Task: inverse folding
């Protein structure tokens, strides 16, 4: 969701009680958030320093990069069903290919 400053943040909405919680603030351009199948983490694309893959706890704490420069660019992450790996697009917009890594950014 955009906050009208050109930045995009991640929000969580509890539909049962119609309550919105902002999970990130002031991190820049965040896209494609996806909650892990176990419900404990969120992976997303962070576009402030090029397209990077970031991970944070479900409550918005502990945001950190797991893939990006100087290794390469990555975007549109999705979880494996067992929560242990992340599939994403890697490369450039002109020449992208699928990539997979462990949740800690290893084993690419």
Result:
């Amino acid at each position: 969701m955009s906050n009208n400053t050109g930045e995009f943040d991640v929000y969580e909405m509890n539909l049962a009680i119609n309550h919105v919680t902002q999970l990130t603030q002031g991190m820049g351009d965040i896209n494609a958030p996806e909650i892990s199948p176990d419900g404990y983490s969120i992976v997303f694309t962070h576009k402030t320093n090029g397209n990077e893959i970031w991970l944070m706890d479900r409550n918005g704490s502990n945001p950190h990069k797991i893939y990006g420069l100087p290794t390469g660019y990555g975007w549109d992450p999705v979880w494996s069903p067992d929560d242990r790996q992340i599939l994403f697009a890697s490369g450039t917009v002109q020449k992208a290919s699928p990539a997979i890594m462990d949740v800690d950014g290893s084993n690419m």
Remarks:
- The two ends are 30 Å apart (CA to CA).
- The first strand starts at residue 11 and ends at 14.
